[in-house]
Specification:
By secondary structure, the protein is α/β, with parallel strands linked by helices. The chain has a single domain, classed as Response regulator (Rossmann fold), CATH 3.40.50.2300. The chain is built from 6 helices and 5 strands, in the order ααβαβαβαββα. The chain has helices spanning about 5-10, 20-30, 40-50, 65-75, 90-100, 140-145, and strands spanning about 30-35, 55-65, 80-85, 105-110, 130-135. A 5-stranded parallel β-sheet has the order 2-1-3-4-5, sandwiched between helices. α5 (about 90-100) links the parallel β3 (about 80-85) and β4 (about 105-110). α4 (about 65-75) packs parallel to α5.
């Protein structure tokens, strides 16, 4: 044998590998953990790529429905949640309220194709830190909206968001430079 021990062999010897959730939570403590909630696979893929450009940020999971996103947020405790407004079942506004009830420390950013002036009722009062049109999602604006800018004490700004911004001062900011 070459000295390597498989997870199966290791299990037989009495130790058990850590569950995947523990790994995600461990990564989350050192990095800005992100949950993407959107029913459109192309947007989830684009958002995952964008998050990959931010040093110190990592995608913890993706969900296709608001209900699934709320369950994942309760388990994974992400710092940031990208929440589509138009979701099957409970919409993104309702799901944001549900999510913040189980994980009030999350910075939820609503995303959709709506112009800010055309947002559905409740978008400005659901607890989200801001709103972005999907095509406006950039690393810089995402850092501003979530209050997790790179190495500064700057507060988030309204930038292109159409709703009030709730500053995030309760979570330390890791480095968030573009790699």
């Amino acid at each position: 044998m070459d000295g390597k021990v498989s997870a199966f062999e290791n299990n037989e010897r009495g130790s058990t590998p850590a569950p995947a959730v523990q790994t995600a939570q461990t990564a989350q403590t050192a990095q800005t953990g992100v949950l993407i909630v959107d029913d459109q696979a192309p947007f989830r893929s684009a958002a995952r790529t964008l998050i990959g450009l931010l040093r110190g940020w990592t995608v913890l999971a993706e969900a296709e429905t608001g209900e699934e996103g709320v369950r994942m947020a309760a388990e994974l405790r992400p710092h940031v949640v990208l929440m589509d407004i138009n979701l099957p079942g409970r919409n993104g506004i309702q799901s944001t309220q549900d999510l913040l009830a189980v994980h009030p420390g999350a910075a939820v950013v609503l995303v959709s194709t709506y112009a800010a002036a055309d947002l559905p009722e409740g978008a400005d009062t659901c607890g989200a830190v801001g709103y972005l049109r999907k095509e406006e999602l950039t690393p810089r604006i995402l850092r501003e909206l979530t209050g997790r800018p790179s190495g500064t004490s700057a507060q988030p700004t309204a930038a292109s968001a159409g709703i009030a911004i709730r500053p995030r001062t309760d979570v330390p900011s890791p480095s968030a430079e573009i790699t």
